Amino acid sequence: MQTTLATKELTLGYGEDIILDDLNIEIPKGEITVFIGGNGCGKSTLLRSMARLLRPKEGGVILDGEDIAKTATKEVAKKLAILPQGPVTPEGLTVFELVKQGRHPYRKLLKQWSKEDDEAVMSALKATNMLDFQNRSVDSLSGGQRQRAWIAMTLAQETDTILLDEPTTYLDMTHQIEVLDLLFELNERDGRTVVMVLHDLNLACRYAHHIVAIQNKQVYAQGRPEHIINCNLVHDVFEMKCDVTYDPMFGTPMCIPHGKGRCIIDTNSMAN
User: Fold this and answer.
1) Where along the sequence do coiled-coil regions lie (predicted)?
2) What would the pLDDT profile of 112-149 be if each residue is shown by its tens digit?
């Protein structure tokens, strides 16, 4: 049975500041959900609270029908894994040693490393195409390879649900697509639920089954990209004028922002 994850009247903040207020979100099982919104709107805060890394001010996060705050830490770690933005690897740590850390929720006092642990690590390395890099130090890898190593660590946890905070940040276009394709394949092949924060709206529309748009401390809209992404949403959520058309390759919504730039077409003739 797949893990269920939702928020119920969730309010989050730091000190006296309210970041998100009264959120009711249900994450679709076995699909890819992407949180979108302007800088500082609370996307990463929401993701952290779903991993029980931030205590709500009100309401709660519901994991398999129970308040996640009342669930034992190791039990949470067996159901969902989180990859924060820009994780730091200890110097000299190999890929294999990093991925092994994903087995921590299954470790017990005096319990030896088991065949099941080894199989989980090998399976994670294989799924992320990192088998050939397992003896390399993580800090010697390219940005895309390093991100795949961290994703392998989350896979070694063998959870139904993976949370990722801006997994494509600081990556060039090639490595962005490499990482997102990997997450897409994990969802397609294994039915894993993937929840992530993305800044690129067009990539969010291409890869997500479900989008949650955050604006002014609340959910502005949530649903399938083709149902909710339009000019009004982009204007209200990102304060940007745009045209929304369709990606010619995938048929998903594609945002073309207005603004200044070098124009090589005759806009007057187009108007006529």
Assistant:
1) none
2) 778 899 999 999 999 999 999 999 999 999 888 999 99
CA dihedral in degrees (9, 13, 18, 19; nearest 10)?
-80
Q: Which position has the token pair 């998100």?
A: 20
Rounded Cα gap, residues 252 and 66, in angstroms: 35
Looking at the DSSP bridge assignments, the partners of residue 195 are 33, 163
The full set of domains in the chain, from first to last, is 5-79+160-271 (3.40.50.300), 91-158 (no CATH)
- Please give the full DSSP string across 194-256, using - where no structure is assigned: EEEE-S-HHHHHHH-SEEEEEETTEEEEEE-HHHH-SHHHHHHHH---EEEEE-TTT--EEEE
CB distance 128 to 102 below 8 Å? no
Q: Alpha helices, DSSP H only, in the chain?
A: 43-50, 73-77, 95-100, 115-127, 143-156, 173-190, 201-207, 225-228, 231-238, 267-271
Rounded Cα distance between 141 and 152, Å, is 14
Strands 17-27 and 5-14: antiparallel
Distance CA 67, CA 64 (A): 8
- Residue-wise pLDDT for 60-111, tens only, equals 999 999 999 999 988 999 999 999 988 888 888 999 999 999 998 887 755 6
